[in-house]
Amino acid sequence: MPVGSQPALSIIVPCYNEEKSLPLLVRTLEPKLNSAFGELGWEMILVNDGSQDGTEACIEAFHQLCPKIWGVSLTRNFGHQPALYTGLTHSRGKICACMDADLQDPPEVLLELVKIVLSGDYDVAYGVRATREAGPLLRGCYRSFYRLMGAISEHPWQMDAGDFCAMNRRTVDMMLSLPERDKFVRGLRSWVGLRQVGVSYTRPRRKLGRSKYNYSRLYRLAMKGVVGFSTAPLRIASFLSLGMGLICVLGAAFLILNRLFPAFTLFGYSIGASQGIATLAVLILLMASAVLASLGIIGEYLAVVLVEVKQRPVSLISRIIHQ
């Protein structure tokens, strides 16, 4: 880690195959940071998340031109959340800001978030995506996820807020002290509480390069949030199993009564009418669906438990790029 006095601001930027976006990011952000925080000091930590292109070379070149910009290279692609968390662990600033490399997080809004935290009125200021320049399906998926989390989360969940934020050192240290291995930064940020405020902005499309989040990765990220911050799915699985068990008990009671007393029927149905095939098929399908749904939910939680039990580090560092 570069030596020297503690800077006022640390900006953490996860990077995965961002050689096209990084030059534009640095050219856009560096003069704004020098103008706003030149005297107070700042640093930009570019976390190379196992990129296969020239991202690491770009980080080295930027550091040669401006020592305030330095990097952490991971041994492989660990994912956006581990890369972001790794950057936070290496940050030194009194305030830490998180943003993406693709300029979908506007630098002007970033400075606004930082100034809100610098004022001392709030510990955290985070961006709220009032509108998003994306397709209707993607917008619908994001909106549904945040509404779902707001309904089932066991703590207040920040609507339409990603990882784009500014936090004071107190908040960052609290997040870093949490022992869990499966890190979901925006969830941990809201979980710690403190004084937090949202700032609305319009999230534009990527200017350069391609998004690394396909629907499969977005699903895994969403499940990380659901499993990590709510036990509601487990309760649903329990209620589903108990409910299906009750239905099976009532069905069995009806079948027994109808067999012993043929005059007793439910809605005119007699078990002898179809030799029991339809009845058994329906009961088996209902029971199987309940069991499989419950196993699927339990499996998601077991996956998290497995990660925690292994106690592997969030990421592994290949090298740190600084003088």
Give the topology.
Elements: E1 9-15, H1 21-37, E2 42-48, H2 55-65, E3 69-74, H3 80-90, E4 95-98, H4 107-118, E5 124-132, H5 136-152, E6 161-168, H6 169-177, H7 185-191, E7 196-203, H8 215-229, H9 232-260, H10 277-310, E8 317-321
Parallel strand pairs: 1-2, 1-4, 2-3, 5-7
Antiparallel strand pairs: 3-8, 4-6, 5-6
Helix pairs in contact: 9-10
- N- and C-termini, Cα separation: 9 Å
User: Biggest sheet, strands in spatial order?
Assistant: 7-5-6-4-1-2-3-8
Radius of gyration: 26 Å
Q: Assign a percent range to the helix content.
A: 40-55%
User: Runs with pLDDT <50, length 5+?
Assistant: none
CATH class of the largest domain: Alpha Beta
- Quick one: biggest sheet? 8 strands, mixed
Assign the CATH superfamily of the largest domain.
Spore Coat Polysaccharide Biosynthesis Protein SpsA, Chain A
Q: Please report the number of helical segments.
A: 10
Shape: elongated
Q: Pairing-aware structural class of the strands and helices? A: alpha/beta
CATH architecture of the largest domain: Alpha-Beta Complex
Fold-level CATH name of the largest domain: Spore Coat Polysaccharide Biosynthesis Protein SpsA, Chain A
Short synopsis of the structure:
This protein is of the alpha/beta class. It is built from 10 helices and 8 strands. Helix content is 50%, strand content 17%.
